[in-house]
Design a protein that fits this description.
The complex is a heterodimer. Chain A is of the alpha+beta class. In chain A, helix 5 runs antiparallel to helix 6. Chain B contains 10 helices and no strands. Chain B has 2 domains: about 90 residues, Rna Polymerase Sigma Factor, Chain: A, CATH 1.10.1740.10; about 80 residues, Winged helix-like DNA-binding domain superfamily/Winged helix DNA-binding domain (Arc Repressor Mutant, subunit A), CATH 1.10.10. Chain B is globular, with a radius of gyration of 17 Å. In chain B, helix 3 crosses helix 4 and helix 9 crosses helix 10. The chains are: A alpha+beta, B mainly alpha.
């Protein structure tokens, strides 16, 4: 008996029981330990002590798995069990949330980020379309402004010409007075023999308005013969000076009413005004 | 226990609630990758459930049987081909400590005593115990890893566990 106790003590001292508990023994050793434990209560008690302390050690080093894992694992073992589990888990929801929050949060973040991107895209498209329209409006305005500018430039060059006429001392101004056909008629002609230029001042013209089929024609009388100086219209809108065909010398100027485009020789019956130097 | 033998739902629930954290503590120290460790915990419980009939109360405590299943499954996983491919080659000893640091917030309040527990173990005792218990090393592998004779390993392991016994009593 005594000898046997010594044996048991020595067996315990080898550390084989600890390795057995740690699962670090060969199948043969495992069988041997189990036989010894069955035979000797002291070994069985020792084993139990070792197991107990290792279990406590494991508890001290426990790591709580995530809450979702519980229902997932139970569901995989007994399908349908998780439903009641989830109900149970919901009743302790606050604790549950601490662990389960992060992943849904990230998902929600991406969801919102995506929505924000879409909204931004829509706003950008609307802004782009309205900007495009504004650009087109601006382009039309620029075109019309350019047209205006062109017109003004034309007017200015025309006025320049008029100004030259007025400033040029070589120009002579002649008032052609109305004949019997139009006693009230009056046409002012500016003529420069030096420059061989003839202008009509449309601004001061006083003539009955001509119709579509007729035009007034200016003639110069050179040594008793009429010379065509071009046609013009008498309408109240014209305010500028009109340059006519050039001529170097003239005794008199006259205006007749002729068919539109003018005639080769004046219709003397329709002579409206006449002026002599 | 009876519920487990009858394959009752409440049995596995109770088993999970009692032991999942302790088992996961072992698995998570062997496998640092959380999704993989969670997979192993699931496989472990499935295996416990399916082979529960092979557990014999005469042969020892339930937790001892379960933790050996969990450790073996974790080691099988870590040594499997596809896991090795994504192995992070962390230093094993540091691993245990870094896991403890990472998981600090998960510890239950009543486990605050872990500090003085660690102090009761001498560093060389703790490193051997953790290598075998939490890293799944055999004592032969631990001897090679630490460059210590087998006999010394066995003695230190035994001393460590005796220290724990004293501490828990």
């Amino acid at each position: 008996m005594n000898f046997e106790l010594e044996d048991i003590k020595a067996y315990i001292e080898t550390g084989i029981l600890e390795l057995y508990v740690l699962g670090d023994v060969s199948p043969a050793e495992k069988l041997q330990v189990e036989e010894m434990a069955a035979k000797h209560p002291a070994i069985k008690a020792e084993l139990d002590e070792i197991e107990r302390s290792m279990e406590l050690y494991a508890q001290k080093n426990a790591v709580e798995p995530s809450e979702q894992l519980r229902s997932k694992i139970l569901e995989s073992i007994i399908p349908g069990a998780a439903k009641s589990e989830e109900a149970a888990a919901n009743s302790v929801a606050p604790k549950d949330n601490i662990i389960s929050m992060p992943s849904p949060n990230i998902f929600r973040f991406y969801k919102y980020a995506f929505a924000a991107c879409l909204a931004l895209l829509l706003v950008s498209i609307v802004a782009l379309v309205s900007l495009y329209h504004k650009l087109q409006d601006s382009n039309t305005q620029i075109a019309s402004l350019q047209l205006d500018k062109q017109r003004f430039a034309n007017t200015v060059s025309l006025k320049d010409g008029e100004l030259q006429v007025l400033q040029d001392a070589s120009f002579k101004f002649l008032k052609l007075q109305g004949t019997v056909h139009a006693p009230a008629a009056l046409v002012t002609v500016a003529w420069s023999p030096v420059r061989k230029k003839v202008w009509i001042d449309m601004h001061s013209i006083k003539m009955p308005e001509n119709d579509k089929d007729h035009q007034y024609q200016l003639w110069a009388l050179v040594a008793g013969k009429p010379v065509d100086l071009g046609v013009f219209d008498a309408n109240p809108d014209s305010t500028d000076m009109k340059e006519m065909k050039s001529i170097a010398s003239a005794d008199a100027f006259a205006v007749t009413l002729e068919p539109r485009g003018g005639s080769a020789s004046p219709t003397m019956d329709e002579m409206m005004v006449l002026g002599k130097f | 226990m009876l519920a487990l033998r009858n394959r009752d739902k409440t049995g596995i629930e109770a088993l999970y609630d009692m032991y999942s954290a302790s088992l996961y503590g072992v698995i998570a120290r062997i496998i640092t990758d959380t999704p993989t460790a969670e997979d192993v915990l699931q496989e472990t419980f499935v295996k416990i459930w399916n082979s529960f009939s092979s557990y014999n109360t005469e042969k020892g405590r339930l937790f001892t049987w379960m933790v050996n299943i969990a450790r073996n499954m974790a080691i099988d996983k870590i040594r499997s081909k596809d896991f090795k491919n994504q192995n992070k080659n962390q230093d094993l000893e540091n691993n245990v400590n870094s896991i403890d640091e990472q998981r600090n917030t998960v510890y239950k309040p009543e486990l605050l005593g872990i500090k003085d527990l660690v102090e009761t173990l001498k560093p060389e005792q703790k490193s051997i115990l953790d290598l075998v218990y939490f890293k799944g090393f055999t004592h032969v592998e631990a001897a090679e890893e630490l460059g210590i004779p087998l006999g010394t390993i066995k003695t230190r392991l035994r001393m460590a566990i005796q220290q724990l016994r004293k501490h828990f009593n």
